[in-house]
User: Which sequence fits this backbone?
């Protein structure tokens, strides 16, 4: 949207003359919409930064939110949107904070006693604020998508721990569905753990995996092959009777991969293969 020279000059003059009153009114209206979830000092800082960036973007008498002159304004709006998204505010609360500037402007300058030049500047200003509100809404949506992606990645990390069970033996207890994205995380974390712990045996425990189909089996086999390339052998544990029947029915072949019914048996196998002798102590007789 373009402001002609007269509107632009009038617009800037109005902002300069009543900047403090405008910031006060805007801060108050934002606070009422957010119901005390941000302090007055924080809201005033945001209002001051936004108004300063807006004045800089319209200083030449024209306004284009996508232009180089509006880079600072876009940055301030983007920071506001990301902060609100991470703070748990709704998109409506975020956009309404920007739209509240229109109410503040009308409250400070009013329509009733405005001359024709001031009225034209007010209308142009409202159109500018509408663009800012829409940009804030769109940026908020992008920030929320990024936040959801980050949280999903963090959940993948937390749901795929690699545990050192013994010197040279690590385990990956899997719980839930193993899809392609999670399988990639499992492989990466296991390979890093093998390097960091200098382990030669890895136990992949699928006790918590509800079902094993061809796709899940392929993910497990790829992880085993990757570990072997790193010089480690894998043992698969937690194969319950139902899963064993499914594997046979589907014709899935694990080849020479060692499988055990539970994690304890897999650990015993790995320790013995590492040269550790396991001796069961006789129970002490009561005197």
Assistant:
């Amino acid at each position: 949207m373009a402001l002609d020279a007269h509107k632009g000059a009038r617009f800037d003059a109005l902002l300069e003359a009543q900047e403090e009153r405008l910031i006060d009114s805007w801060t108050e209206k934002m606070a009422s919409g957010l119901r005390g979830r941000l302090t007055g000092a924080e809201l005033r800082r945001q209002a001051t930064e936004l108004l300063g960036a807006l004045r800089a973007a319209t200083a030449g008498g024209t306004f284009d939110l996508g232009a180089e002159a509006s880079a600072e304004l876009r940055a301030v709006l983007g920071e506001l949107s990301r902060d609100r998204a991470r703070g748990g505010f709704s998109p409506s609360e975020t956009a309404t904070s920007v739209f509240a500037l229109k109410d503040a402007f009308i409250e400070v300058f009013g329509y009733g006693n405005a001359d024709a030049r001031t009225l034209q500047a007010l209308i142009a200003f409202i159109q500018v604020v509408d663009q800012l509100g829409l940009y804030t809404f769109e940026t908020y949506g992008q920030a929320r998508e990024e936040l959801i992606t980050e949280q999903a990645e963090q959940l993948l990390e937390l749901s795929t721990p690699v545990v050192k069970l013994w010197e040279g033996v690590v385990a990956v207890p899997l719980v839930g569905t193993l899809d392609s994205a999670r399988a990639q995380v499992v492989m990466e974390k296991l390979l890093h753990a093998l390097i960091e712990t200098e382990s030669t045996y890895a136990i992949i425990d699928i006790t918590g995996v509800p079902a094993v189909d061809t796709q899940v089996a392929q993910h497990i086999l790829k992880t085993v092959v990757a570990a072997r390339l790193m010089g480690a052998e894998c043992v698969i544990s937690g194969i319950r009777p139902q899963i064993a029947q499914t594997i046979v029915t589907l014709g899935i072949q694990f080849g020479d991969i060692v499988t055990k019914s539970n994690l304890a048996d897999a650990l015993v196998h790995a320790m013995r293969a590492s040269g550790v002798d396991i001796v069961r102590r006789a129970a002490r007789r009561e005197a």
Remarks:
- The first strand starts at residue 163 and ends at 166.
- Strands lie at 163-166, 169-175, 201-208, 233-237, 258-260.
